[in-house]
Design brief:
Number of strands: 11
Pfam families: p450 (PF00067)
Largest sheet: 6 strands, mixed
CATH class: Mainly Alpha
Number of domains: 1
InterPro entries: Cyt_P450, Cyt_P450_B, Cyt_P450_sf
Organism: Streptomyces corchorusii
GO molecular function: heme binding; iron ion binding; monooxygenase activity; oxidoreductase activity, acting on paired donors, with incorporation or reduction of molecular oxygen
CATH architecture: Orthogonal Bundle
Distance between the termini: 67 Å
Strand order of the largest sheet: 1-2-3-9-6-4
Shape: globular
Family: Belongs to the cytochrome P450 family.
Structural class: alpha+beta
C-alpha cells in the first residue's frame, strides 16, 4: 500500500513489491550516459522531491530541487546524518551494496550537533594549515612524474594513469606520507580499490588495509609530529583519540581522492570535446578555471549523496516525509534546476553550485579550495607538457561508469606527440 504521494507507508509490503506505486528505481542505462534527461523526467512527473527505489527495491526520496536541497542541508534538526534513524534497516541484507555508504561508522560523516562541530572543527583547522602554494608545487611535481611515465609513448589512458593517481598522492602528501614511497604506492592502489573496485578486486580487504596503514601513520605522527594534516589533528586541543583520527582521516582522503579525480577527468573531457574550449584552450582564450567551474555545475563528480534521515514527520516539496525516511541529495539535479538556471550554461559563471554540498555537513572549509588547487594544477600541467593532446576515440565512444552516485568516465584514452623524457 502507498499513500497519496506514491511513497510506501510504514505498513507497506516488503521492498520490491509492485505496490510501491510510482517510485522510480535509481538504476539503469539512463543514469550511466544521460542522467540529466532522467532528472528532467523525474522533475516533470514528480516535482522537486521524487519517490525512488534504491538497490534491492529499498524506498527513499530523491531531492531534485535546488531550494529543496538547500533546505534539507540547512535544517539538521529535521534531516540528520545519523543513519541509525532509518526505518528500513529490517529490510537491509548484510551484503547490500550501499552498506558502505549508509552503515553507521564512528566518523565525522555521521556525527551530529556538538560532536560534529568538534570533529569538523579539528579537520577544518588541520586543513587550514596547508599552504596552497606549497600544495600546488607538490602537485606539479607529482603531475610531472606521472606524465613522464607515459609521455614517451604518444598514448595514454588518463583516468587510471593520471586523474586518479594525482589527487591520491596529493592528499596523502598533505597527511604526511612521502610521495615517492612503496608504502604510499600500495596505499594509493588500495584507495582506488576500496572506492572504485574493478573486476577481481576485493574492496573490503582493501579498505581494511587502508585503515591499518592510516592507523600506523597516526601512531608514527604521535611519536614524530610534522607540518602535516595528521599531526595537526593529533595536536589539536579537542584531544581526538587515535580511532577517531583514523576514521576522520579516511573520510578526508576518500572525499579528496575520487571526486577530485572525476573532476579532473570530466574537465579534460570538456576541454577535448567541446568546441567552445577545444579551439581556444591552446591559445589561452578560455581559462582552465572556467572549465573546472562549468563541470561542477553541469557534470559534477558527486551526482547524488546518500543521505539524510528525517528526524520526525515533516513536509518537503509537497511530500509527506515520515520519521526515519531516507533522503538522497540530488546534487547534480539541483545544480541544473531550471527554476534556478533556465539556460544550459547560465550557471557556469559563478560558484553557487551544490557540488560540495551545503550547510553544516558540507565539505569543510578549505577543502574545496585545496581540491581546486589539485584539479587546476593537474589539468594545467598536463596541457603544458602535452599541448597537442587529443582524444584517441570519437567523443561519443566515451562511456560513463555505471554509478548513480559518482559521475566519472570508465576511461579517457588520448594521443599526443611523444615527448623525450
Amino acid at each position: 500500500m502507498s499513500d497519496t504521494t506514491g511513497f510506501p507507508s510504514t505498513d507497506a509490503p516488503p521492498p520490491g513489491c509492485p505496490a510501491h506505486g510510482s517510485a522510480v528505481p535509481l538504476a539503469g542505462l539512463e543514469y550511466q550516459q544521460t542522467p540529466s534527461q532522467l532528472y528532467r523526467t523525474l522533475r516533470r512527473e514528480h516535482g522537486a522531491v521524487a519517490p525512488v527505489l534504491l538497490d534491492g527495491g529499498i524506498p527513499a526520496w530523491l531531492v531534485l530541487g535546488y531550494p529543496e536541497v538547500c533546505y534539507v542541508t540547512a535544517h539538521d534538526e529535521l534531516f540528520a546524518r545519523d543513519s541509525r534513524r532509518w526505518n528500513q534497516w529490517e529490510h537491509i541484507p548484510p551484503d547490500w551494496p550501499l552498506l558502505p555508504y549508509v552503515g553507521y561508522q564512528p566518523s565525522v560523516l555521521f556525527t551530529e550537533g556538538a560532536e560534529h562541530q568538534r570533529r569538523a572543527g579539528v579537520i577544518t583547522q588541520a586543513l587550514e594549515g596547508v599552504d596552497q602554494f606549497e600544495l600546488a608545487r607538490e602537485c606539479q611535481l607529482i603531475a610531472a612524474r606521472l606524465i613522464s611515465s607515459f609521455s614517451g609513448s604518444g598514448r595514454a589512458e588518463l583516468m587510471s594513469m593520471y586523474a586518479h593517481a594525482l589527487p591520491a598522492r596529493g592528499v596523502l602528501w598533505m597527511c604526511g606520507m612521502p610521495a615517492e614511497d612503496a608504502d604510499t604506492e600500495r596505499l594509493v592502489d588500495d584507495l582506488r580499490i576500496s572506492l572504485d573496485a574493478g573486476e577481481g578486486d576485493d574492496p573490503v580487504a582493501a579498505y581494511t588495509r587502508v585503515g591499518e596503514r592510516i592507523m600506523r601513520l597516526v601512531k608514527e605522527k604521535r611519536e614524530r609530529p610534522g607540518p602535516d594534516v595528521t599531526s595537526r589533528m593529533i595536536l589539536h586541543p579537542a584531544g581526538l583519540g587515535d580511532e577517531e583520527i583514523v576514521q576522520d582521516l579516511i573520510s578526508v582522503i576518500a572525499a579528496a581522492q575520487q571526486p577530485t579525480a572525476n573532476w579532473i577527468c570530466n574537465t579534460l573531457r570538456l576541454l577535448l570535446t567541446d568546441e567552445r574550449f577545444a579551439v581556444n584552450v591552446a591559445g589561452g582564450r578560455v581559462s582552465v578555471g572556467e572549465a573546472l567551474n562549468e563541470v561542477l555545475w553541469l557534470d559534477t563528480p558527486t551526482q547524488n549523496f546518500i543521505g539524510r534521515w528525517a528526524v520526525r514527520d515533516t513536509q518537503l516539496g509537497g511530500r509527506h516525509i515520515r520519521e526515519g525516511d531516507c533522503l538522497v541529495l540530488g546534487l547534480a539535479a539541483a545544480n541544473t534546476d531550471p527554476q534556478i538556471w533556465p539556460e544550459p550554461h547560465a550557471g557556469s559563471g559563478n560558484s553557487a553550485h551544490l557540488s560540495f554540498s551545503n550547510g553544516e555537513h558540507r565539505c569543510p572549509y578549505p577543502a574545496p579550495l585545496l581540491a581546486d588547487v589539485m584539479a587546476r594544477t593537474a589539468v594545467e600541467t598536463l596541457l603544458e607538457h602535452l599541448p597537442d593532446l587529443v582524444l584517441a576515440v570519437e567523443p561519443e565512444e566515451l562511456t560513463w561508469r555505471p554509478s548513480i552516485w559518482m559521475r566519472g568516465l570508465t576511461s579517457l584514452p588520448v594521443e599526443f606527440t611523444p615527448a623525450m623524457n
